[in-house]
Write a structure and sequence with these properties.
The structure holds two protein chains of two kinds. By secondary structure, chain A is an alpha+beta fold. Chain A contains six helices and six strands, in the order αββααααββαββ. Chain B contains six helices and seven strands; from the N terminus they run βββαααββααβαβ. The chains are: A alpha+beta, B alpha+beta.
Chain lengths: ~200, ~170
């Protein structure tokens, strides 16, 4: 049996989180938060609009980086969590590929993006298609799913790079299509990062 | 807690909603890096932009709630903001004040504690997010529009490792 995506999504989607008596959400070895998607989109749109032309690339990289580090550390907590062990691991028969499929099912279940893997070459390349994601509602110009780019890269690093926490920045993700620019879906391509120089 | 919480899930898109507003989960790494990005862009007003975005968006959420639930008094409306802050996982606030302003003590903080977990203590206050949040909370409590209050972080948990203090004045 390989990972049954719909089963995983439905099981994980039932989980609701909110702050404890201290107003904090300690889960997956990090502090979680639950924020309005409109607020996050609004920040991305306005900080990009405020940046002068020569800084726009740096700001976009900063937005991706925020999501990447969030995804890398939280993602490790997710794939080693009790809930992941209970729901996903019993279905794993293809090792790393199934872990990655399960991780993207969690990705969907927790509302980051209704997405899945459409092409996977182990350790080399992954193509993700997203049919719905909150950044598709953002204002601005061009492809701008910064969060999804960061998370896709993080999950591939966790699966195929050196074991956590030494595998950061092994792969890179580029967005090739976006609902926010009129495409029917978002598309994200993860490949090995080219050595500098 | 007196806040009514209606969590819902769109079974088609799997987007999540809290009291009708789409919400999404991220970690302290995300908000710490968003805060740092705003700090790094101080030359173009990054910290103020972050405060403004939070104030405008949280004003809309809190205003919707008090309208839909007919919350009558400023004290109760302020409590809505205080409780929402904790539900979002942002920490724990103690709030005191009047229509003319007040003081808010930050007892626990996702942003400051997250910053310290990631990079250790900082040399200056960094909780621009909560400044914007408190401005929205006071504005909704006293039936005012956004930009009615100015909030200054005078003591920072990210600096001292203990509690934070925010002073609220009429703009």
């Amino acid at each position: 049996m390989t990972v049954m995506r719909d089963t995983v999504v439905k099981s994980l989607a039932k989980i609701t989180i909110q702050g404890n008596e201290d107003g904090l959400i300690p889960e997956y070895d990090v502090l979680e938060n639950l924020l309005p998607a409109a607020l996050l989109n609004s920040f991305s749109e306005r900080i990009m609009a405020a940046a002068p032309q020569e800084k726009k690339s740096m700001v976009a990289d900063g937005l991706v980086r925020a999501a990447y580090e969030c995804g890398y550390h939280t993602g490790c907590g997710i794939i080693t969590s009790d809930v992941f062990n209970d729901v996903v691991l019993p279905m794993v028969t293809e090792g790393e590929k199934d872990i990655l499929r399960g991780a993207f099912a969690a990705f969907t279940a927790w509302g980051w993006a209704k997405s899945g893997i459409v092409q996977l070459k182990a350790g080399e390349k992954m193509v993700i298609r997203a049919n719905d994601y909150y950044e598709a509602d953002s204002g601005g110009d061009g492809l701008r799913a910064y969060m999804l780019r960061g998370l896709c890269q993080a999950f591939f690093d966790l699966t195929y790079a050196a074991p956590y926490p030494d595998g950061m920045d092994t792969y890179v993700c580029q967005q090739s299509k976006g609902i926010e620019v009129g495409d029917p879906h978002g598309e994200f391509i993860v490949t090995k990062k080219q050595a500098a120089g | 807690m007196s806040l009514k919480l209606d969590f819902s899930l769109d079974n088609e898109t799997f987007r999540r909603y809290l009291n009708g507003h789409a919400v999404v989960m991220h970690s302290h790494h995300y908000l710490a890096l968003i805060t740092k990005l705003a700090e790094d862009l101080s030359d173009i007003g990054g910290p103020q932009l972050l405060k403004d975005v939070v104030e405008e968006n949280m004003w809309a959420v809190l205003h919707d709630y008090v309208q839909q639930n007919d919350v009558p008094s400023p004290l109760q409306r302020c409590n809505v903001g205080r409780e929402y802050y904790s539900v979002y996982g942002l920490g724990k606030l103690k709030v005191g004040g009047t229509e003319n302003g007040g003081e808010v003590c930050l007892v626990r903080s996702h942003i400051d504690e997250g910053w310290i977990k990631k990079w250790g203590r900082h040399s200056k206050p960094i909780n621009h997010f909560t400044c914007g949040y408190i401005a929205a909370m006071f504005a909704v409590a006293f039936n005012k529009p956004v930009k009615s209050y100015t909030v200054t972080e005078t003591e920072s948990m990210a600096v001292t490792g203990t509690e934070g203090t925010f002073i609220v004045t009429l703009s």
